[in-house]
Design a protein that fits this description.
By secondary structure, this protein is of the alpha/beta class. 40% of the residues lie in helices and 21% in strands. Helix 3 packs across helix 5 and helix 9 crosses helix 10. The protein binds adenosine-5'-triphosphate and magnesium ion. The site of adenosine-5'-triphosphate (ATP) has 18 residues, from helix 6 and strand 11.
């Protein structure tokens, strides 16, 4: 029996004249991700993509599961299902369905059959195929009942050019747009819960990611850095490889704490972060910054504070978590696999010197007056000189 994975895409189908380039990007990405798993072909036809083992190669169950996992983690695909390919006649379709679907049919009580007849030359109409296949399944699995309104499982028979594909149930996949279809952004990645989610949300909309992590060694530890590397690795399982820039803020933190009013400390630090990130973004062809900020979450995330931090950069700053409650962010963090790593208890450079009474409604001129007490440009340049780059390569299919 030949088993394949059928991938359905969502928004790409609406892309009109550009559709073909989006499809090509998605297929290229899938091929790349599958290349480390086995010899799979990626074939586009009739608004779907088929992933199938190449002639002469039989994947074992692990390789097939890994390929399925890759398909469901690739942005641009909204649903995936495993299908068996039957010859295009009712005898083959019925015989194969009984064997291939046996386990699923034993585990449910009700079903319905839906047939899609993409190949209009097939002699039977879709209603007739559904009726005939339904009758065969009822005969072989006598405990089953047909329920067309709310079936436990929908058996699908898709009659396409090359074969009839049989499946039972499809699974929602990642959705979104293929990574790389909407430019590149630089994610400010801390070890917290929010920023990995923010990166994932932008990657879902087709944005390729680079990331910057600010540390303040020895106030922050190597474990804190390892944690951020692990978070980047998990996000890369969805977003593709990520170049992680690690920049030291130690000197900046020390200078700020010696020279500036404590109440402004976090805001000043965040202005340094945004400014340095902006410089890295320009150098690496990133067209926007991405942060995990959420409206009102902490003092530095009030509307006025965000305005003050944004005024150090001259590119768009995307904050996809801005309207989400923490609980909602956590639901996504769990879904994408970052939550357990994010809650490991290592310090962040923002939390090393925290003011007791941070300004929640800062005024830009007062912030700038405080900032003038240190040599902003020299400190920013010195921090940039400390930059290390770590290439995060994902392990696809795990
Ligand atoms: P997270 O928002 O990732 O859960 P957090 O809530 O502890 O972490 P905040 O103090 O809320 O972090 O910081 C707001 C945003 O600033 C983060 O979402 C992240 O984009 C950025 N940021 C904070 N600390 C760092 C850091 N050390 N390196 C890079 N970016 C950072
Ligand atoms: Mg946060």
């Amino acid at each position: 029996m030949r088993e394949i994975i059928l991938c359905k895409y969502g928004e790409i189908a609406l892309k009109g004249a550009n559709r073909s380039s989006f499809e090509a990007l998605l297929c290229r990405e899938l091929k790349f991700r599958l290349s480390g798993i086995g010899k799979f072909s990626v074939i586009r036809s009739q608004s779907t993509i088929r992933i199938e083992p190449k002639e002469g190669w039989e994947p074992d169950a692990d390789a097939f599961d890994a390929a399925y996992n890759v398909a469901s983690h690739t942005f641009g695909i909204i649903a995936v299902c495993r299908c068996a390919a039957a010859e295009k006649n009712m005898d083959s379709i019925s015989a194969l369905s009984v064997g291939y679907l046996a386990q699923t049919m034993q585990s449910v009580k009700t079903f319905k059959v839906e047939t899609k007849r993409a190949d209009k030359r097939f002699p039977l109409h879709s209603g007739d195929v559904s009726a005939e296949l339904g009758a065969v399944l009822l005969e072989h699995f006598p405990h089953l009942r047909v329920n067309v309104r709310e079936p436990d499982v929908v058996v699908k028979c898709e009659i396409r050019e090359d074969a009839a594909y049989i499946s039972a149930g499809q699974v929602h996949a990642a959705g979104g747009m293929p990574v790389g279809s909407n430019g590149k952004g630089l994610l400010l990645l801390s070890g917290g819960i929010d920023s990995p989610v923010a990166g994932w949300m932008m990657a879902k909309r087709g944005v390729k990611l680079e990331a910057v992590y600010f540390e303040a060694f020895p106030y922050t530890s190597m474990q804190a850095r390892e944690k951020v590397i692990e978070l980047a690795r998990i996000v890369s399982g969805w977003a593709g490889s990520i170049k992680l820039h690690v920049v030291s803020l130690t000197k900046i933190e020390e200078e700020l704490s010696h020279n500036c009013c404590e109440d402004y400390f976090t805001l000043l630090l965040r202005r340094f972060m945004m400014h340095i990130a902006g410089k890295i973004a320009k150098r690496t062809d990133c067209e926007a910054l991405i942060t995990g900020e959420s409206m009102g979450q902490v003092a530095s995330q009030t509307m006025q504070a965000l305005g003050v931090t944004d005024s150090t950069v001259d590119m768009p700053v995307f904050r996809p978590c801005i309207g989400l409650d923490k609980e909602e962010i956590i639901i996504t963090a769990r879904r994408i696999g970052t939550f357990e790593t994010s809650i490991l208890p290592y310090e962040d450079c923002c939390t090393v010197f925290t003011p007791k009474h941070p300004k929640t409604r800062p005024e830009l001129d007062k912030v700038i007056a405080e900032e003038k007490k240190v040599d902003f440009d020299a400190l920013a340049d010195e921090a940039l000189n400390s930059e290390e780059i770590i290439n995060i390569r994902p392990i696809f299919g795990k």
